[in-house]
Amino acid sequence: MHCALKFCSYWRSKRLEAFRFVVLCAVMGVAGCSGLEPVAAWERGYLAEEGMQWQSSAREAKFEGHVYTSKEASSGGNGAAGGGCGCN
Amino acid sequence: MLNFTVYVTKALGGLLVCILFSAGVHSSPSSKQDALPAPHFSLPAIANTEGAISLDAFKGSVTYVDFWASWCGPCRLSLPALDAIYRDLAPKGLKVMAISVDVVEEDAWDFLARYPVTYPIAIDTEGSVPKAYAVNGMPSGYLIDREGRVRAVHVGFKRGDEDALRAEILQLLEE
Questions:
Q1: Distance from CA of A9 to the nearest CA of B (A)
Q2: Worst-scoring range by mean pLDDT, B2-6, B117-121, B163-167?
Q3: For residue B107, what is the nearest residue in chain A, using CA coordinates?
Q4: Domains observed in chain B
Q5: B149-155, strands of its sheet edge to edge
Q6: A86:B67 CB<8 A
Q7: ipTM associated with this complex
């Protein structure tokens, strides 16, 4: 309790106005990230385009996946199916 | 200078609170009293009719407005299912129209060649109408009553959804 009061008085001291301002600016900066809008549902077609895929070549990726699964004797874990339309 | 800093700090704090509390506001109307009016639009037709398709043309009828896209997997199920409902219930007064949100019109044509439907199809390459309807998934359907109010919203589509949709439409047709 004593520590809390001490911190409170320290926080309220005039000398720390600038410090409080900087802290609030930093919080605002972080909170600003929450205002970033997700891709709109009707624009998610862009996510399904070839240029948005992790691999440059779907055929090559399939071949590499086949080699990987036969070497590791396991499959899956490479993401989920779907074009990213955000439904179902 | 000190006063100015205090004022700025308080203003930024207030703004922060506003931002945090305004995130994630969402509503979905269902009852007749709460239902919001459907936003009006006029879009170019690409199939089953000519010229422009306007929501005003469907005034006084129970109308289902469906948003879809060629890249949307579940739309391969929803369009034929909706077409079956339309062909069954059109004699009872149901109107259906669909809006493609494809950026490239040819993509919509290719999709319709594979999954043909009989109801009118419009296209909105700018995305202004889905924005007005606050579409948050593909496909999204809006069931509009005779007074032009949105009574139900369907997001996504899976096998079996057509039965629930048909029941909802029938209920609205009987009102």
A1: 16
A2: B2-6
A3: A45
A4: 29-174 (3.40.30.10)
A5: B36-37, B149-155, B140-144, B63-68, B95-100, B121-123, B42-47, B52-54
A6: no
A7: 0.70
